[in-house]
């Protein structure tokens, strides 16, 4: 996971660590910061990054899977499920990434919109 998707666990909080991890990942999925097909870190890797027991992260992942937010695949690991996202959320996230790339490339709004129109026509 990139730095802008960092999970933070407060061990002094009343909420158990697994619930903090679950809630933060669910929020990232709901807002489109994690998109369908995005891979989550392995249980061991995330547990090590957060200083938690692997069973704590595994419980968070199990609850996310039970809610239909993630899927665990044998070779692909744990990925964001496609059913939870609406097309609007996924496309809005991609549009934001495109807008940032267009700005970074020095394009004005009209040029960026022209590119989108051309892509839509090309189908």
TrEMBL record:
Residues 15-83 form the HTH gntR-type domain. PROSITE patterns: HTH_GNTR. Keywords: DNA-binding, Transcription, Transcription regulation. It holds the Pfam family GntR. CDD domains: WHTH_GntR. PANTHER family: HTH-TYPE TRANSCRIPTIONAL REPRESSOR YTRA. This is GntR family transcriptional regulator.
């Amino acid at each position: 996971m990139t730095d802008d998707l960092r999970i933070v666990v407060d061990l002094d909080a009343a909420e158990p660590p697994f619930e903090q991890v679950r809630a933060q990942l669910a929020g990232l999925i709901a807002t489109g910061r994690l998109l369908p097909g995005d891979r989550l870190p392995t249980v061991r890797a995330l547990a090590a990054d957060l200083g938690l027991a692997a069973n704590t992260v595994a419980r968070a992942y199990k609850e996310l899977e039970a809610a239909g937010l993630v899927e665990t695949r044998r070779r692909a690991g744990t990925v964001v499920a496609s059913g939870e996202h609406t097309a609007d959320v996924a496309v809005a996230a991609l549009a934001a990434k495109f807008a940032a790339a267009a700005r970074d490339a020095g394009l004005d709004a009209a040029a960026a919109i022209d590119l989108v129109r051309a892509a839509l026509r090309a189908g």
